[in-house]
């Protein structure tokens, strides 16, 4: 039940004390209060996404759909960004890594976007769902084995489980040999932790991966991107990999952590399946909270405000999903009507695999640690003070200590309820080259592969 949106029919307001700041501890502790204030100003309002970086933030569900589904008037190419072109954005701004142009599908429009996106969607379509469930369960078993035998029966779920699990699954999906997979994980983790040189680490590792696949192609997503009929250059392949890896791991980490915490909380009714907890997380705690930069190609009237051509507009997926005008009739909507995966031509191409990984990760945790519980109430958990994502800082848990067997001997307790066999025949994974044999003293991916082989 989507309401028709009239982009010029909602009166706007004006804050009396400058732009709302969408960063820092105050915002992180209570983003909904900030969104409510912004909603009082109309479907969109000016905010500071970082120091000295102003954007227009869309908080209305219908206005968000209007922009996301109108690529003729709102494009994604941030080379149109007026303030950046005029030198008004600090060179060291934390907004630049998230908003500055990159030659990938996310920042492309028209035919260029269609070409790059087709290569990505076609490659993702070859992922076997049953195999993906097994990869996720195996990664979950390994990570749980690392903390489940602790004598105190306590762990911090974000650092020990939610953060590394997508990295292990993705390293395998993209066909990384151990030593490259280790550096991919270090690079991606470093980007989100602000580690100097993390971009260079990730870029160098992916460059090596592409060179390896040129000489030794495999049945993995990297090879499928490289051999696609769109004929991507190595540079284009690298930038699509960066987007898929960095743009996929952070939201999955947030979704796994928030869904696990929600399911274990007193707020969650007994008997509802894990998938419902993931759906509620996507609605109420959108992992990508504020993003999707758009640039009007001409001046646009939105709720009485004039949005100038070339000035950035960000979509608040978090605010749009909890828009009071929407929540009044949300039960009548499809469970997939949320905007956590975006909408329109730039909607997330990996939404189905992402949902499957998140659901399987939560279910695996519950299967392996059946008495796991939160150590503090869900309402008291702290959220990261960043505008870009809605992620818990920590999820302290307790459980009865136990031993999880090696994946080589383990049998999954039960498959995730969303797993469905792929209708198309899928090739078996190619054997890894001999030079890539894992060893116990390597990084996380090397140790994981050694564990799966009983080493």
UniProtKB/TrEMBL annotation:
UniProt superkingdom: Bacteria
Composition skew (Low complexity), residue ranges: 404-423
GO molecular function: heme binding; iron ion binding; monooxygenase activity; oxidoreductase activity, acting on paired donors, with incorporation or reduction of molecular oxygen
SUPFAM superfamilies (UniProt xref): Cytochrome P450
Region (Disordered): 404-440
Family: Belongs to the cytochrome P450 family.
Protein name: Cytochrome P450
